[in-house]
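To illustrate the input format used throughout this study, we show a single complete record. The first block contains the structure-token representation of the backbone; no residue identities are included at this stage. The design step must infer an amino acid for every position from geometry alone.
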């Protein structure tokens, strides 16, 4: 057994027990992924998600390295899916049904796909499935209303050209949606708060 000022470790013996005790390490997520040893962290905000609710980075985040880029990639894919679904619904429903029904049907399907992709590929959270979905729909609907309001304001009140205004507004709403989903849809309480609530 070996002691120092920062950590104490007990190496695996014949009995196969491998305890690792480290001051400052609050969970198994504080462990080094290669050695399995706990990594010291004096910052109480360093681990802000509980181990039960935070998943390790998936293939998309490992590829692009940044959550914002992953969010944009999933958003672009979902936009394409929404367009495709709208075209399919228009063809399936035919001329006897208003086009708005096809749009609504496409939205109903695409929002579920978007939720699953954002939850599993971008924000990587676990638990609270129904709560996350309801918040996701609320943020998404808020983004749609914000898009409509800002575009109307830009074109009707400020007299900007409609097409450039639509592009700028959609970009701004996409940025707002990222923060909305990050801090509302998939928000998790900091581990420190959770510990205090238990104690």
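Output of the design step:
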């Amino acid at each position: 057994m070996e002691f120092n000022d920062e950590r104490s470790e007990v190496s695996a013996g014949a009995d196969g027990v491998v305890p690792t005790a480290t001051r400052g390490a609050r969970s198994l997520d504080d462990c080094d992924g290669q050695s399995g040893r706990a990594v010291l962290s004096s910052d109480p905000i360093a681990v802000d998600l509980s181990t039960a609710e935070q998943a390790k980075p998936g293939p998309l985040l490992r590829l692009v390295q940044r959550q914002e880029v992953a969010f944009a990639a999933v958003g672009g894919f979902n936009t394409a899916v929404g367009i495709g679904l709208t075209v399919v619904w228009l063809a399936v429903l035919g001329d006897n049904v208003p086009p708005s029904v096809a749009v609504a049907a496409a939205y109903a399907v695409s929002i579920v796909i978007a939720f699953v992709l954002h939850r599993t590929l971008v924000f990587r959270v676990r638990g609270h499935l129904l709560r996350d979905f309801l918040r996701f729909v609320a943020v998404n609907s808020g983004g749609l209303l914000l898009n409509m309001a800002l575009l109307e304001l830009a074109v009707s009140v400020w007299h900007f050209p409609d097409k450039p205004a639509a592009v700028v507004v959609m970009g701004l709403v996409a940025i707002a949606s990222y923060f909305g989903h990050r801090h509302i849809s998939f928000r998790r309480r900091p581990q420190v708060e959770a510990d205090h609530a238990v104690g």
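Structural context for interpreting the output: Confidence is low (pLDDT under 50) at residues 1-52. The first strand starts at residue 2 and ends at 3.
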